[in-house]
Write a structure and sequence with these properties.
The protein is mostly beta strands. Residues 1-28 form the signal peptide.
Length: 638
Amino acid sequence: MDRRRFITIAAAGGAALATTLKPLAALAAEPVAKAKGPLLLNRIGPSASQIFIANADGTNERKLIDSGTLDFNASFSADGQWIVFTSERDGLGNANIYRARADGTQAERLVDSPNVDDAGVLSPDGSKLAFVSTRDGLKTNIWLKDLKTGALKNLTGVAGVQGDPMLPDGFFRPSWSPDGQWIAFSSDRNTEWKGHHNGAGWEHTQELSVYVIRADGSGFRQVATRKDYCLGSPKWSLDGKRIVFYETKSEYTYWVLRPDLLPQIDSQIVSVDVATGERIEHTSGPGFKISPQFVGAEEIAYRRKGGAGEGLYSTAPGKAPVKIPGLRTPSWSPDGKQVIYEKFTWRGWKQNQPLFSWDADREYRYSDVWPAFSKDGWMVLTAKGDDSSVDIMRADGSERKRVFNVSKDGGLDMGLVKRGLAGAFFPVWSPDGEWIVFGLGSWFTERGKGGAKLMRVKRDGTGAEALTDDSVFNAGFPSYSADGRQIVFRSWFGEGHDYDKMGLRILDLETRKIRDLTHGYDNLPIWSPDGSRIMFTRGEKIPNSIWSNFDIWTIKPDGTDLQRLTTHPASDGHAVWTPDGKQILFNSARNGYRDEAPHYDMTFQPYGQLWVMNADGSGQRQITDSLWEDSTPQYVPR
């Protein structure tokens, strides 16, 4: 059965973001043919995952569940007879919840929707499932399902519990009390959007507190919080009197996503008395500690993530760490004798790998980053999965050719290239399809330290030439004018915040003169197909705040008629025109994280989902809903 679904969001009209989220029901189960060209997108997430089980001391490790896709976030039932886990076996990007016997057999689906369903845990008597879902609003909430009647209840998406609907917050990682009366969870409800590095950065940090609520929806209250900190993955003590969680600085919820920064940060394992709020720190010292769980009356087991000390630890004196390479999200059996976990594979996906689609008329396919199409139907992209060189190919991935080889001709620090911080980025076609222009140099966090220049090369790989001098400024993200005579690009100067020196510039290809178009924290300019407007992402300081807000703007090529298309307090950006110029595809964080940030690996903005809007900013609607970062979209033209 083809389970592709469609999610839409009703437009509020105009460019303002007062949109109302209204997911539609599943459409026809088996559409005959796709009426529209595929959507290409890049997904930053693992390519496969298997669930393993071992003795608590690490011996007798064995694979328990492997659907050939992604299986993860497993937990035991209270009687130890069942395993509940999340799986994408129904389509990559479509997370549903399953359970299986403790030996991995008799797998059955418990929760099925086109939205994200994750982090399921069974009640102590096995009659109910608490889980995280983005159904009914596209933001994460804690839901309950009665496994006998099938009845569903949204516990947190209700008045008095749900935070400000305009903020990108959510509810995560539910945990049942031993008596089955209460559910603990983490949430960043009513916390403002804040970027890293004192609020100036693009990526979102996460400030979580710990809450409890009764299974009938009453008694909601906060039990632990700390300003500018992230408190996550709460679990109850065996007697139900305490809740244990990890605690780290909110700023570190960005650092933990970067392998180079992870070894430099720490967290501690903390518990509180549910009745009195009495606080105990059970650990100290370096290391990022996560996934705590009581495995005895006093003993707490947890994972240390990253670095040489990675492994499973215990608060019991003298207990040696358990080293199981590559494990994630451990969960111990009720008797503490076994541990279940998953291991991710990051081998990458093939170009045009089918993905779960939310549109009955359009296939979704994986692509390497920033695909763009010529008028004769050839695609160009950055081969970031390789060495960030420039490749061209047919839309189906055939006849692939390398037209600029970074390893051979780039002259870049290959260490930075390997880390994704340097390369040949954002290649685009000239209108006549004869040239490809791109930026070559240092990117992202390295842009203020290293140079980058505009390059162009003929479609056959010859004639490579520099268009700008990388010793003057970091130039990137170029785009041709409709007549092919000019190129707009982003200019960046050093590490400071002198926005007058930064902004968008336009290069005249005949005279090689450069003129200023904008001054500010502007990026990713793209000329509309008809040449009438230039779209870009702008970061602006929020009034009376220390951090920036990123939104999508357009401007005429002569610098007049500046228009703002998005206004949400979360970041909107990475926008591209659709081939016909009538719509804009973009990445948005407005619905927040799908999980606690510290559980992610090797990604920077896992909350980012894809949206589409009309060229004037109206009709904004979400078109992906996965646990992973979806980015660099483009429709394949017919």
